[in-house]
């Protein structure tokens, strides 16, 4: 029998990138919150190290036991046995993935919110990718913009505004949608190489810029500026320059005394009453079972766990899983297409130090920044070159057919070239499809016997394959203009378990095709809200976190303003 | 970094069970942890040809990559130990069959012929050869170029070979110029006693 705890106003499941943001406006408004988190606090001195084996090989920052037991399986579709992935992008810690992410903090663009209608208007019905379940978002960029402002200020985003109130500034991203004001901090500095790439792009007539990042470019709110030491990705920040929610919004929320954190928990079910309202959260802590009653539950796990927990939480009113009477939980899922083009230079480019968010980005070939008439695809890719390279990764480099893979000739090759190779980060506008969805695995379960999440990819997508191929050609052009002597374009592939996982609890006005409404609350269980990229219906050609955080603030804001009607 | 800090760190790490026991008890060890003495000789004979000592400096064995491999197979990579050792023994048998002696008894040129046959997929009756080669190469890279804390990269030989300037706690703009060549920072992230 579960021990019943003292009721709270709001139970937030997961204190990561989005739950960690939502607790701040809730706590400031005086609501009593239980923050229920599978992990615990990480300590910069104890847990974060300038060590590639620790961070990138053994993944000791990112490998948390609970998530390790819940790695999703992947298959193309029905009839095929799913295989469990070797690694997972989920995280159990206060701060969640915002501890170890690259912290690239983008806003989506107006186009991302109304891709379907804009595509119909500009290119006609034939341009809509075959089989997609794409819908316009139920809100516009303008409605989300004030929340982007709030989050950028609280977590601390560095960047240069490209468009303030419709006026191009001549700096930053000229393709971005209008901002109300400048970023809270100037952009991170470039490195010699990223400056060289930016200069090259300008010569091509492109408009490169230093992309926005939730990383201090200067000392701010008592946190250090970035020290560019080269262990940011998959690692925690040893000087807390990275604006993870563990060092920003969560401690701010704690100051109000309205946030109680329950760490090292394993949430097993969200409970409901006979009327279909949620009543609280059941969880295990030290093998003991507890029930946390709450007037409102906000589900803020990683995309895979959001769908999984809903599907596992079956009850009389919800025989197919919580909020799934319309069969939409798990639907409209998609993993972001991320791909790589690598280049070899005939001189040292010295990208060992720095961080992945230190870079030069070009947005010419993303979204609807260019005319797609006759192209055979919609969307495109952002192109990003960056720094931070580690020695094992450096030694394991592609030899571009210029040397064997071992022996003295190889040794000479890596001696000369390990510091001369550049990678890129290319993010594709990715869309949901009828045959791509999440469900529960038939065979693989966690130690409690709860099946893990299963990803059904549906196979190759012609639209994304074409847009990625097109962008790779642009990246090759950029590298060659910069002096590269070899360029290698990786073939496009359908993402399996992804660090940018979208959908499964999509947001939309139509309850037949969406799990949550325009405010982020369930169409079926009115006091259940969902946070995270799992509510997003398009990806943009950029990292999801800032948008998911802005949506999290917005749902919290809505809850505060409509507390009586939502909590009843 | 002063040594007492490292002790504190190590104590904390024991508490969080992050570091394999093999790494923490390294000082007390006399022989290999996962491999027998014979297997260790075979492994050394193999990785010595992957990254040989030559005019560019120490190779994998001199840098201690085999120590790293031994420790990870005893600790974090224990689940691949059986398969790895099976592959190692199979390669040794292949050397005996094709070159007339166990790998460790062969001169460098003949060991190269063994590696070449596996790398080029011409090794008959060695179905697991390719997979073993890839794993052995990967673990050798991890040992040679990883932090010396884990047993390899002795005297920072791996980092110096590829001209990696070292894990500095902070880096200024000058050090990030394309033509910058910062002085090698010969420190382990875990303290000065690991070389």
Please, could you describe this protein's structure?
The complex is a heterodimer of chains A (568) and B (195). In chain A, 58% of the residues are buried. In chain A, strands 1, 2, 3, 8, 9, 10, 11 and 23 form an 8-stranded mixed sheet that branches. In chain A, α1 runs parallel beside α9 (249-255), α1 packs parallel to α14 and α7 packs across α14 (545-561). Chain A has helices spanning 19-28, 44-47, 52-57, 65-68, 110-113, 115-123, 141-156, 192-203, 249-255, 303-312, 391-395, 407-417, 462-481, 545-561, 563-567, and strands at residues 3-4, 8-13, 33-36, 73-75, 83-84, 163-164, 167-168, 259-262, 266-272, 278-285, 288-299, 334-335, 338-339, 341-344, 359-362, 381-386, 421-422, 424-428, 437-445, 451-456, 486-489, 501-502, 528-530. With 568 residues, chain A is an alpha/beta fold. Chain B has 195 residues and is mainly alpha-helical. Chain B is built from 8 helices and no strands. Chain B has helices at 3-16, 21-24, 37-50, 65-74, 81-99, 108-119, 129-145, 157-161. At the A-B interface, α2, α3, α8, α11 and α12 of A face α1, α6, α7 and α8 of B.
Descriptive keywords:
heterodimer; A: 568 residues; alpha/beta; 8-stranded mixed sheet; 4-stranded mixed sheet; 15 helices; 23 strands; B: 195 residues; mainly alpha; 49% helix; 0% strand; disordered N terminus
Write down the overall mean pLDDT of chain A: 97
Which pair of protein chains has the largest interface, and what are the residue counts? A-B, 49 and 49 residues
Describe the biggest sheet of chain A?
Answer: 8 strands, mixed
Radius of gyration of chain A: 23 Å
How much of the sequence of chain A is in beta strands? 15-25%
What does the radius of gyration of chain B come to? Answer: 18 Å
Give start-end ranges of low-pLDDT stretches of chain B.
1-29
Helix share, percent of chain A:
10-25%
Oligomer: heterodimer
- Helical proportion of chain B? 40-55%
Number of helical regions of chain A: 15
Distance from N terminus to C terminus of chain B (CA atoms, Å) equals 14 Å
Shape of chain A: globular
Low-confidence stretches of chain A: none
The arrangement of helices and strands of chain B along the chain is HHHHHHHH
Beta strand count of chain A: 23
Distinct helical segment count of chain B: 8
For the report, how would you describe the main beta sheet of chain B?
A: none
Structural class of chain A: alpha/beta
């Amino acid at each position: 029998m579960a021990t019943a705890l003292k009721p709270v106003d709001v139970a937030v499941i997961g204190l990561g990138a989005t739950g960690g943001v939502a607790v701040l406006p809730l706590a400031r408004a005086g609501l009593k919150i239980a923050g229920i988190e599978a992990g615990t606090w990480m300590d910069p001195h104890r847990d974060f190290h300038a060590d590639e084996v620790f961070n990138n090989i053994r993944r000791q920052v990112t490998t948390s036991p609970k998530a390790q037991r819940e790695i999703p399986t992947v298959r193309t579709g029905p009839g095929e046995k799913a295989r469990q992935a070797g690694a997972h992008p989920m995280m159990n810690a206060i701060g969640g993935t915002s501890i170890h992410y690259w912290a690239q903090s983008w806003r989506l663009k107006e186009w991302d919110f109304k891709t379907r209608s804009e595509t119909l208007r500009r290119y006609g019905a034939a341009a809509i990718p075959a089989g997609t379940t794409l819908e316009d978002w139920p809100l516009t960029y303008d409605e989300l913009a004030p929340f982007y402002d709030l989050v950028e200020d609280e977590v601390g985003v560095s960047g240069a505004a490209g468009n303030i109130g419709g006026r191009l500034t001549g700096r930053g991203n000229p393709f971005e949608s209008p901002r109300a004001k400048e970023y809270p901090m100037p952009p991170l500095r470039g490195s010699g190489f990223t400056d060289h790439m930016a200069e090259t792009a300008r010569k091509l007539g492109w408009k490169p810029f230093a992309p926005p990042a939730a990383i201090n470019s200067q000392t701010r709110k008592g946190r250090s500026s970035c020290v560019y030491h080269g262990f940011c990705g998959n690692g925690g920040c040893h000087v807390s320059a990275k604006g993870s929610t563990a060092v920003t919004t969560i401690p701010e929320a704690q100051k109000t005394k309205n946030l109680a954190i329950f760490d090292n928990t394993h949430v097993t079910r969200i409970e409901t009453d006979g009327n279909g309202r949620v009543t609280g959260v059941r969880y295990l802590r030290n093998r003991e079972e507890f029930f946390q009653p709450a007037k409102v539950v906000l589900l803020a796990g990683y995309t895979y766990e959001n769908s999984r927990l809903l599907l596992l939480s079956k009850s009389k009113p919800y025989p197919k899983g919580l909020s799934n009477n319309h069969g939409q939980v798990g639907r409209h899922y998609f993993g972001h297409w991320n791909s790589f083009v690598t280049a070899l230079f005939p001189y040292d480019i010295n990208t060992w130090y720095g961080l992945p968010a230190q870079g030069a980005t070009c947005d010419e070939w993303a979204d609807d920044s260019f005319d797609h008439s006759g192209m055979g695809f919609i969307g495109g890719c952002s192109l990003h070159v960056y720094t931070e390279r580690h020695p094992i990764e450096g030694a394991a480099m592609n030899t571009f057919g210029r040397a064997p893979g071992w022996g003295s000739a190889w040794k000479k090759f890596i001696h000369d070239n390990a510091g001369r190779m550049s990678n890129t980060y290319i993010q594709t506008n990715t869309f949901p499809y009828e045959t791509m969805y999440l469900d529960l695995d038939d065979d693989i379960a966690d130690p409690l016997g709860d099946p893990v999440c299963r990803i059904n990819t549906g196979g190759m997508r012609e639209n994304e394959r074409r847009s990625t191929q097109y962008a790779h050609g642009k990246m090759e052009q950029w590298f060659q203009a910069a002096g590269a002597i070899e360029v290698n374009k990786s073939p496009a592939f359908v993402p399996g378990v992804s660090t940018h996982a979208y959908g499964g609890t999509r947001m939309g006005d139509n309850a037949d095709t969406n799990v949550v409404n325009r405010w982020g609350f369930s169409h079926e269980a009115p006091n259940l809200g969902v946070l995270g990229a799992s509510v997003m219906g398009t990806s943009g050609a950029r990292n999801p976190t800032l948008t998911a955080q802005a949506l999290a603030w917005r749902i919290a804001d809505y809850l505060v303003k409509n507390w009586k009607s939502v909590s009843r | 970094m002063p040594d007492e800090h490292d002790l504190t760190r190590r104590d904390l790490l024991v508490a969080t069970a992050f570091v394999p026991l093999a790494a923490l008890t390294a000082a007390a060890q006399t022989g290999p942890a996962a491999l027998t003495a014979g297997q260790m000789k075979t492994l050394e004979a193999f990785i010595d040809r992957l990254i040989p000592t030559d005019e560019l400096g120490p190779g994998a064995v001199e840098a201690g990559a085999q120590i790293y491999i031994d420790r990870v197979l005893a600790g974090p990579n224990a689940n691949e130990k059986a398969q790895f050792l099976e592959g190692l023994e199979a390669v040794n048998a292949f050397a005996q069959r094709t070159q007339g002696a166990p790998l460790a008894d062969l001169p460098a040129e003949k060991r190269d012929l063994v590696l070449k046959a596996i790398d080029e997929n011409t090794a008959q009756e060695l179905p697991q050869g390719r997979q073993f080669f890839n794993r052995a190469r990967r673990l050798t890279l991890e040992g040679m170029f990883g932090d010396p804390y884990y047993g390899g990269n002795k005297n920072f030989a791996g980092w110096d070979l590829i001209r990696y300037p070292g894990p500095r706690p902070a880096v200024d703009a000058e050090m990030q110029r394309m033509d910058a060549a910062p002085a090698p920072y010969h420190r382990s992230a875990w303290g000065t006693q690991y070389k």
